[in-house]
Amino acid sequence: MKLRMRGVFLAYDHGLEHGPTDFNDVNISPAYILNIAQEAGVDAIIFLKGPAMHFYTPDIGIPLILKLNGKTKLYNGEPLSVQSTSVEEAVKLNASAVGYTIYFGSKYEHLMIKEFGRIEEEAHARGLPVIMWAYPRGKGIKDDEAPDIVAYAARAAFELGADIVKLKYPEDDSNLEWIVKSAASTKVFMAGGKKLEGDEIESRVEKAIKAGFSGIAVGRNIWQSEDPISKIKRLKEMIG
Ligand code: FBP
């Protein structure tokens, strides 16, 4: 299944990144998440290997983005996220794309840049697009949501060959166009973060799309909302 390079990607890798604390009795189930994804017609579902192995099949009709690295919140050192799943495994699991996080500014960024480089070459050789979670973090970074830092992450993703970059929304959103320009031909997707109040996610999406973002790759703001299916449909309509 071909990945549409635009739209709403539903992120669900939080079980590793944050632990089950993000979940309630209902959304703790990957089957429930896939059901939402299918009902609302998201453009992709983002899983780590375990949920993909046990819950995903292509007949669901939703492309899979397989996240190849991750870390837990229990780890307290300089940010480092290493590969746990191969591109070959992604192909076996019928993934339509692969994802990888780099913490730019960490004292370990060289390890992640090197690993990403290999993954990017392997994935492109198999025709799979590569999505980079470009999250500046660690000793070198004072404010990871400062607009110039977000723009730097966008550019770094382009320089390293990512097809799509997923970025945190900047604290000052007066020049989102600069972030899109910095990413050049790499498509820019917005991450969601903690659940936002009211219609704040819609208002961010509106500004981001107007500035040239291609979509969102969001988790909590969807599956922690009261009506995830309507939420996705509304966001999809805004993005087009
Ligand atoms: P959310 O929309 O829930 O923030 O998900 C986006 C995401 O990038 C997830 O893919 C990932 O698990 C999480 O954020 C990591 O967030 P952080 O490292 O900031 O705790």
CATH superfamily (homologous) name? Aldolase class I
Largest sheet, in brief, is: 8 strands, parallel, barrel
Count up the domains: 1
Provide the CATH architecture.
Alpha-Beta Barrel
Provide the low-confidence segments as ranges. Answer: none
CATH fold field value: TIM Barrel
Q: What percentage of amino acids are in beta strands?
A: 15-25%
The separation of the N and C termini measures: 20 Å
Structure commentary:
This protein has 240 residues and is an alpha/beta fold. The protein has one domain (7-239): Aldolase class I (TIM Barrel), CATH 3.20.20. The protein has helices at 14-17, 30-40, 49-55, 87-92, 109-125, 147-159, 176-182, 200-211, 220-223, 228-239; strands spanning 7-11, 44-47, 64-67, 69-70, 82-83, 97-102, 130-134, 164-167, 187-191, 215-218. The strands form two sheets. An eight-stranded parallel barrel has the order 1-2-3-6-7-8-9-10, surrounded by five helices. A two-stranded antiparallel ribbon has the order 4-5. The chain is globular, with a radius of gyration of 16 Å. The chain binds 1,6-di-O-phosphono-beta-D-fructofuranose.
Short characterization:
This protein has 240 residues and is of the alpha/beta class. It has helices at 14-17, 30-40, 49-55, 87-92, 109-125, 147-159, 176-182, 200-211, 220-223, 228-239, and strands at residues 7-11, 44-47, 64-67, 69-70, 82-83, 97-102, 130-134, 164-167, 187-191, 215-218. The chain is built from 10 helices and 10 strands.
